[in-house]
């Protein structure tokens, strides 16, 4: 039997929320530079871990303007954060157990303005 497990694929560690837009249909808008560096794609499912208030929830990625530094929670997710909160954004991937042993996730550490260091 071939076993598949979920492993960390991508992580943006300690991004700062720049906007919260309750009137949008949902998702998280992320600066395209951060998306590229973390190997995230538009519409990919992500988990959000709010370091500031402890909330945890899932949503999906929307591409933000490159070099904008935008981290915007939209729709219902906007109620889970406040502008200025520090969050972790992660995605996971299912893969073969043996393949997972050698897989290296893309982990980035933006500065307080959501720019790559």
User: What is the number of beta strands?
Assistant: 8
Average pLDDT: 96
Which spans have pLDDT < 50 for at least 5 consecutive residues? none
The share of residues in helices is: 10-25%
Structural class from helices and strands? mainly beta
Computed CA radius of gyration, to the nearest angstrom: 14 Å
Order of strands, widest sheet:
2-6-3-5-4-7-1-8
Strand percentage, roughly? over 45%
Shape type: globular
- Please, how many helices? 2
The biggest sheet amounts to: 8 strands, mixed
N to C succession of SSEs: EEEHEEEEHE
What is the topology?
Layout: E1 4-16, E2 19-21, E3 27-31, H1 32-38, E4 45-50, E5 56-64, E6 71-74, E7 86-96, H2 97-102, E8 106-108
Parallel strand pairs: 1-8, 2-6, 3-5
Antiparallel strand pairs: 1-7, 3-6, 4-5, 4-7
Protein model, in words:
The protein has 117 residues and is mainly β. The protein has two helices and eight strands; from the N terminus they run E-E-E-H-E-E-E-E-H-E. Strands 2-6-3-5-4-7-1-8 form an eight-stranded mixed beta sheet. The chain starts with a strand and ends in a 9-residue tail after the last strand.
Keywords, separated by commas or semicolons:
117 residues, single chain, mainly beta, 2 helices
